[in-house]
Specification:
Helix content of chain A: 10-25%
Radius of gyration of chain B: 26 Å
Shape of chain A: flat
Number of domains of chain B: 2
Number of helices of chain B: 11
Order of helices and strands of chain A: HEEEEEEEEE
CATH class of the largest domain in chain B: Alpha Beta
Number of helices of chain A: 1
Order of helices and strands of chain B: HHHEEEEEHEEEEHHHEEHHEHEEEEH
Distance between the termini of chain B: 67 Å
Largest sheet of chain B: 7 strands, antiparallel
CATH architecture of chain A: Sandwich
CATH topology of chain A: Jelly Rolls
Number of domains of chain A: 1
Number of strands of chain B: 16
Distance between the termini of chain A: 42 Å
Strand order of the largest sheet of chain A: 1-9-3-7-6
Largest interface: A-B, 20 and 22 residues
CATH architecture of the largest domain in chain B: 3-Layer(aba) Sandwich
Helix content of chain B: 25-40%
Strand content of chain B: 25-35%
Strand content of chain A: over 45%
CATH topology of the largest domain in chain B: Protein Transport Mog1p, Chain A
Radius of gyration of chain A: 21 Å
CATH class of chain A: Mainly Beta
Oligomer: heterodimer
Chain lengths: ~190, ~400
């Protein structure tokens, strides 16, 4: 019994060791918090023909209401030697697909007496009309952290690329100080 | 048994991750100095020289301490004074013998800031009256604080690195004409780059040296970006570049149709937008406003524009006053906006620059002073011509 435990432990510790000391991965640019007023830039992305550059968005939200993750629009410009290779605007955190490293926890319910008049916002915030006389819906609050794939960009030429990007959202909750957005670049 | 095994594995893990560093048990004095300073002394010397050789552009700054006392000092154009209610981080007296009620009065402290100052306490100017021209001598400061490595010391100045690697300056001046002493203290913020930290330190030192150089006030005609730029410290320049690089990329890659971007930081603001209608009709509102010497209300602008609806509507009503003051260059104009209030009117000045590129017609707006010559205005105007600073 002890023996099995030891083997088990060794495996775990060994894998921790392998991950922490020798990160093998496809991350080409570590998690970088998004500046919502400035253009964010990652330079010197060493990419080869056949690589696929994958932009990942990381959401770190606390006190999220009813799991409504604010949708962002990510505008990016990939350039090589000053020449634009690709320029587009794509939605970020809009669906449920391709989510990794997700941790989720429902916040402990506080006093329910406190009836907050909260507008029942749909993710893009365009719905401003009040819903009349409906029983106040129970709002669950959660903490949710996850990474989600935003876009894949196939690379057709070797080189050191520059990726400029910015992101914004119309959603109220996107401006919350409890909503932190970051971008991670990986390649396949 | 299980525990020993675990411990063994853990220590193995820790050791294997640490690699080479473990041989450094203790450092010999030379290595210690090197470690503390971060870069070789010769590099520090050359940074000191290069900061020292920079020309300074000074402006007289007055600050009313109380109804009876106004102080006047000379500061670089990008700097200003701000109220500060605590005392210095540097010990002016022996911390061992200080008791609370011994009647010692600390001098008034003011915070010296620029656009990128993070906290209020990084640079402080303390002003007080005394008959003793040698008050708070450098020798005392050296005793009451803990300089680990002194970079520069003379009768009035002490620049040092403390045990935590912090770069600190003390600079004292005395003006016998009004029996006033001026103490300038600074602790350089961390920049993750020792070179930048030393550049900041020696730039502040130069600032302190010129504090009472009332004969060196810059002439207005010298206040153009090409002249000011070489006088700025590396740190300031790098910080400004972040904003303009971003604006340049917005313009080149991101702003389409009627898009806009609003950069609104504590002490610096930019609003850059593209006007689709003006782009298609090669129309330039800066020229129109200048030629008509516009004076009226925001609502009176009688050409199709996004000037009011885009930026100014966040701040002003359409019956607030908007007036052309002067032309700054072919690209830029100085405007005055007055918000009519109940008790008093709020007056603000703005520089509006026109940027014509093959990507369209853009406009850049920033708040400025009544002469349209603060640093942001100088940079905006230059940027509108060259798309870089």
């Amino acid at each position: 019994m002890l023996k099995i435990f030891q083997i088990f432990l060794t495996t775990i510790l060994f894998s921790i060791f392998a991950i922490s000391c020798n990160p093998v991965g496809k991350t080409v640019s570590e998690e970088k918090p998004l500046d919502d007023q400035l253009v964010n830039t990652t330079e010197n992305l060493d990419l080869k023909k056949g690589d696929i550059l994958v932009i990942w968005g990381k959401m770190d939200a606390s006190f999220l209401e009813n799991d409504n993750v604010p949708v962002f629009h990510l505008s990016y410009n990939l350039s090589l030697d000053g020449k634009t290779i690709e320029n587009a605007t794509v939605p970020m955190f809009s669906g449920n697909e391709k989510i990794i490293n997700s941790t989720y926890e429902v916040q402990k319910e506080e006093k329910e007496e406190e009836e907050q008049q909260t507008e029942n916002e749909i993710s893009d915030g365009s719905n401003s009309e009040q819903i009349p006389e409906e029983k106040p819906e129970k709002i669950t609050k959660s903490d949710w952290t996850f990474e989600q794939e935003v876009i894949q960009i196939p690379i057709e030429k070797d080189g050191k690329y520059t990726l400029d990007y910015k992101a914004n959202s119309n959603s109220e909750s996107a401006r919350s100080i409890f909503t932190k957005v970051a971008v991670i670049l990986r390649k396949r | 048994m299980k525990k020993t095994y675990l411990l063994f594995l853990l220590s193995l893990l820790l050791l294997s991750c640490k690699q080479e560093n473990q041989s450094e048990g203790h450092l010999n004095p030379e290595d210690y100095d090197k470690e503390l300073l971060g870069i070789p002394q010769s590099q520090i010397d050359s940074i000191q020289k290069s900061e020292g050789n920079k020309q300074v552009f000074l402006r007289k700054v007055s600050y009313e301490l109380d109804s009876a006392t106004t102080i006047e000092v000379m500061l670089p154009v990008s700097n200003f004074l701000k109220e500060y209610s605590f005392s210095s981080k540097i010990n002016l007296r022996d911390p061992e013998t200080v008791s609370e009620n011994d009647g010692f009065e600390y001098p008034e402290a003011l915070s010296v800031q620029n656009t990128f100052s993070d906290g209020d306490s990084d640079e402080l100017l303390m002003v007080g009256k005394s008959a003793d021209p040698n008050i708070f001598p450098v020798s005392d400061i050296k005793k009451f604080n803990e300089p680990e490595k002194i970079l520069l010391e003379d009768k009035n100045a002490l620049l040092y690195v403390d045990g935590y690697g912090r770069k600190i300056m003390y600079y004292r001046q005395y003006n016998p004409a009004n029996s006033t002493y001026y103490l300038y203290t600074a602790e350089v913020p961390k920049y993750n780059d020792p070179k930048l930290e030393y550049a900041a330190l020696f730039s502040i030192y130069k600032k302190a040296q010129n504090l009472l150089a009332f004969d060196k006030e810059s002439q207005p005609e010298n206040l153009i970006w090409e002249k000011i730029k070489p006088s700025l410290s590396e740190v300031e320049l790098k910080n400004y570049e972040i904003y303009y690089k971003s604006l340049e990329k917005e313009l080149k890659y991101f702003l389409k149709d009627n898009d806009s971007v609003n950069i609104n930081r504590d002490k610096i603001q930019f609003y850059l937008y593209r006007d689709d209608d003006h782009s298609k009709n090669t129309f330039d509102q800066v020229t129109i406003i200048r030629n008509s010497e516009f004076s009226g209300m925001f609502g009176d602008l009688d050409f199709k524009n996004r000037l009011y609806s885009g930026y100014f509507r966040q701040i002003y009503d359409d019956d607030d006053e908007f007036k052309f003051i002067k032309s700054i260059s072919d690209n830029s104009i100085l405007m005055r906006a007055t918000h009519i209030g109940y008790s008093s009117d709020a007056v603000n000045y703005y520089i509006i620059s026109s940027i014509k590129t093959e990507k369209g017609q853009f406009y850049l707006i920033s708040p400025t002073n009544e002469n349209g010559n603060n640093l942001t205005a100088l940079m905006n105007d230059y940027f509108s011509k060259h798309l870089k600073i």
